Design the sequence.
């Protein structure tokens, strides 16, 4: 169990009682504004968007024709995510946007790389090692050769 610390008498002399109506922290705490906004949006029927929702929205956008994409861009009935992405798809950066959407929806394309590693033979003078060090060296080299 912890011992209760005694107040330092040097610090106690600086303590002043708070007066009625006095504000010691004029800025106050962090406003709860964001929490209040999210609660209000939830009460209005808005929900969180999970990764699967984004993936599904992207996949649907891939299949839309130009007329439908233009409708999504201008219609206030679609979520802003869809409107912004659709607008970028139709812009000069459309190919880049499609690539980013594919990466998000299906992951980046796998790229194979061939690496050739040749073992390096080092000449180690074991005569200077003790029996204990030799045993450790043997165990480490055995362990390393088992992994390859």
Sequence:
């Amino acid at each position: 169990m912890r011992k209760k610390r005694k107040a330092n008498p040097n610090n106690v002399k600086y303590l002043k009682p708070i007066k009625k109506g006095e504000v010691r922290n004029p800025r106050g705490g962090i406003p709860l504004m964001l929490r209040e906004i999210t609660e209000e949006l939830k009460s209005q029927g808005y929900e969180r968007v999970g990764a699967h929702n984004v993936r599904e929205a992207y996949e649907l956008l891939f299949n839309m024709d130009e007329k439908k994409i233009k409708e999504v861009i201008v219609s206030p009935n679609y979520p802003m995510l869809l409107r912004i992405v659709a607008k970028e798809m139709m812009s000069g950066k459309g190919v880049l946007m499609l690539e980013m959407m594919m990466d998000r929806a299906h992951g980046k394309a796998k790229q194979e790389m061939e690496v050739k590693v040749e073992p390096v033979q080092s000449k180690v003078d074991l005569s200077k090692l003790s029996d204990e060090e030799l045993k450790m060296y043997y165990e480490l080299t055995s362990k390393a050769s088992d992994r390859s």
User: Anything to note?
Assistant: The longest helix spans residues 131-147.
